[in-house]
Amino acid sequence: MTYSFFIECDDCSKKYRIRYGLGNNYPQFASFQCDDCSKNIEIGHKEFKGKIIIKGAKHIEVDDSQYWDVTVQNLHPEIPTHNNAKNDPYYFQTANVFQNAFRNNLEKEQFQEEQQRWGTFNSKWDKIEMPLRILSTKGEIALREVCGLKFRELFNLFNEWLWTFTSGELEDDYENICDEYNSLELTDAKLYIRNDNKIFNRIYELCNTYMKRSHQFQSTILYQKFGWEVTEDMTANVNWEEICTIYGDLYEIVGDLFVIPTIMNNVKAGRNFDEFKTVEFSLSKYIQSDKAKRAMNFENNSNLSFLANSYFSWLRNGTHHKNSFLNIETNEVDLGTGKGSTIQKKISLTEYVKSTNELFGVGLILSSIALNMNK
Ligand SMILES: [Zn+2]
Predict the structure, then answer these.
(1) What's the 216 CA to ligand 1 centre distance in angstroms?
(2) pLDDT tens, 274-309?
(3) Pick from 78, 103, 128: which residue ends a domain?
(4) 31 belongs to a structural domain
(5) Under a CB-based contact definition with an 8 Å cutoff, are residues 206 and 360 in contact?
(6) What burial class does residue 257 get, using C-beta atoms within 10 Å of its C-beta: 0-12 exposed, 13-18 middle, 19+ buried?
(7) Which of 76, 113, 286, 327 is deepest in the core (most CB within 10 A)?
């Protein structure tokens, strides 16, 4: 459903006719930057059938004579918009989704099933946020006392939630790492992970960092689940300021969680979990190593190498030190990736959103394995 209404920018009074395509998930918000003054304007709903929320602008009425003179702004919280159609009064983002589904011979039921599953992503998280927080800060006994949950029950809830995110293109990757995990003798490795008193903190931090801004990352999810191409001319209706450091934050945590595939790979190669190919190298050296090198150990393991596919040090460096700037005309982000921000690289806004989603998916999968090791 797409509905339209008029707003006026709080700062420069430019008027827009918003055509808002309603998404499935709540809360849902879509943002754009004002053409004239670049203020971020955010529109959406907190809850199902809840009233429309407008930030950075106010709702106005426009008389009929002005109707077609006001700039149209198309917004959708869950589907990317073609750049050249963002002001087109006859454009529907959902038409692209149906075209893609048709081209890929996707059954309507299959699409709806995926959409419905995805619609439970936030509510499933709401159920485990507190238990996971308590586990990470207070431990297993408190989890039982405060939430009435056994560790295994939380583990199952976590995996149910994970499934809403990984179903689709990430399914095979998840199965591959589980196969690898089940094929290895990991008694000592599990003991090592169980003794790591930061592991639950990392899992909670990973999830909380992403979930606090998850509504900003929705626009490419369905495309990613079905493996449809997100092209450079598409843009996401997001607030760059709110999300620009999220990739880097996740990168740091995923870099730490890479200890899991690393020790798995050591065992796979016939060594002890803490022994590396280079004899002088050790697990304690690995843990202190540069984050950019944390995936090297398992990059040739076909069941684990996918974990590094969205782990980019240039994107982490380019976004994490106030080094990135959004060009609101082109919807591209300029990244300063070298020392002193010397090397410039550009990435489209949708590419950033997509990469962040992929990295979060990897983090979720590793979190599930880490929880499994603690069972
Ligand atoms: Zn303005």
Answers:
(1) 21
(2) 999 998 999 999 999 999 999 999 999 999 999 999
(3) 103
(4) yes
(5) yes
(6) buried
(7) 76
